Amino acid sequence: MAKNQAGTQLGEEQFVLRFADPSLAERVRRALREEDKLASDCLQIEFPESGKAGVLMLDGERHTIALLSLPTVVESYKTYDDTNLVKTGDIGQVLLVGGQVAPGQEESLDGVTPPMNNARQRHFKQVPSVEPAVVARVEADLLSILQGGAPSGYEFHDVEEEYVVDPKTKVGTWQMVKPTAKDKADKEAGDKEKAKDKDKAKDKAKDKDKDGDKEGDKDGDKTGDDGEGGGTPAGKDKSGVAPSRRQKAKKDKEVKANVAAAAAQAAMAAEAAANVAAARQAAGASGS
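Now predict its structure.
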């Protein structure tokens, strides 16, 4: 319990008492352990009303005290059996005895524990500024990775590994699996199948183009029949189709062919990713 200068009894107050001089801290610790033998004026802490600076009296010696705020709030607990803990309060201030305090300083540079050393600058630093070009480049790399590609300047290689334990040192490491003749044959067969699928997709696109050409020829014939004397109308070729319309139809066919080829490549990439995932899962199972 604490009392003010008028002698009025106050509620319980908790704070951290920090000493700049380790020898002075040991003297105060010894005096607190022998509290029943202390004289009434042996150890005292005096603060003026609403003051930030006080005095610690120990055996007639005066030591200056500065009241500072902690960077973070610290919880305090009490125990009576070294097993059950009861929270008794939150501590947000520290009493610095004998330390150097800069004019106008209201917060302690350090927290209570070592990780909170110089906490304000280390843990509460400002967010670094990043150039928009860097953000755009990273965003493009992330989108490339999500689509199965690699960042600019890098390449992804699928490598199968296995966990091998050295019989002499008993140390295990991940090592690349050397492909066997069967694995090579399977890989070649898979590559051939992929090439066939790609060729099929191209042939299918070509067939669609031919069908489109036939339809265009039919339309041309109909248009030619509509002309006088069975001749070709003015502004049209033998097919009876205007050049601008024919060019547009050709472009549409090229776009369809590119879309079909891209779909085939995406299917092959998905199949390769599934094979890699299965190989990694098998490698993990063998390692465990």
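Residues 162 and 270 are 23 Å apart (CA to CA).
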